[in-house]
Amino acid sequence: MSVKRGNDFLSVPGPTNIPYQILNAMNRPAIDFSGPEFIATSKACLSDVRRLFRTESMVFVYSANGHGAWEAALSNTLSPGDKALVPQTGNFSASWQDMAEALGIIIEITENDWRHAIDPELVRERLAADTNHEIKAVLMVHTDTATSVTSDIPAMRAAMDAAKHPALLVVDTIASLGTVEFRMDDWGVDVAIAASQKGLMMPPGLGLVAASPKALKASENTTMPRRYWDWISRMDTQHYRAFCGTAPEHMIFGLCESIRMLDEETMEGAFARHARLAEAVRRAVGVWAEGSDGAIELNALVPAERANSVTTIRFGEGIDGIRFRETVRERFQVSLGGGLGMMFGKAFRIGHMGNLNEPMVLATLSAAEASLGICGIPHGRGGILAAMDWFAETSGGPVEVQR
Ligand SMILES: *Cc1c(COP(=O)(O)O)cnc(C)c1O
Fold it and tell me: What is the pLDDT of residues 241-257, one digit of tens each?
């Protein structure tokens, strides 16, 4: 392998680029986790983090990745033998379903082609048919990172209400929190799950689970064996129990800084930035697709369902998606996501979430467009120009210089 110089570009949909502000906040010695400084910092952080979810209720923070947060949510809200409904969205709903089944939960699904958002009408029908209320929870992925499709949470809530069904609404916001609107309390979400390494711009290693009063109440009667994940013991008045042992101090320092940065930008500002960066990616892909004779296509078929945080691009028959991705990485030092599940080897994904700006997106698109040429993949040229034009059009115009 040749020596590399300059920046490596991390354009996978997690982990994402960590800003220096967060790295610097974490760059310090450990402190006494039972001392007053850490307790004050941690209490403030656990309270402030609720803003990101738009909830007044509780947020639990685990030393874990997103899978850990999934297990935390399942093990507190369900008992072995309980039924849950998983509206399929893609590879992430399938993996979450696998985990639930491994824990002894009986899963029903609604079908999906991995190219559209959840159809709330299918959910309403299924819940309305469950007259004995055996289904205890609906496990919904907000943005499926494999398909880059975002589903409509208020529509899901409305479907559950229309069926007059008391199931908990449990939402995986791992790939969406901080990149697109999410309002836990206003939207009637009972449990929301997030992880540190995506829109929150942090290193991997923290799982966050927000729980509504209804979910907390349900957890008092569930019998899934659990200790580390257990909400009730984490709400003990002795603060160290909030982490079931030594607190992940440095991750908490990082989380405080992540919250500060999102406050500084405002959540709405972060959503708008992500929407604009995502649109540049889609415009570039649109140009590649147009001249590709079917070799290149956006996976998400409905424009309004396309994610702010990640874009999945499908290749036609006979194109080697793995070779393409390796080419982009080895020739240009740009890492892209691969196709997952049924799209393995047949798609690539551009992550555009977290600490990201226009030139970073343009660099990634240039490397991808050049690599389409290198690999002989048919494509329309000038995707990068379309992205540039979009950025120019929406830049706010020339800067007024004070002379
Ligand atoms: C990344 C991701 C996960 C898994 O998170 P890990 O930290 O890799 O365990 C789950 N759901 C969604 C939607 C994700 O994007």
Answer: 999 999 999 999 999 99
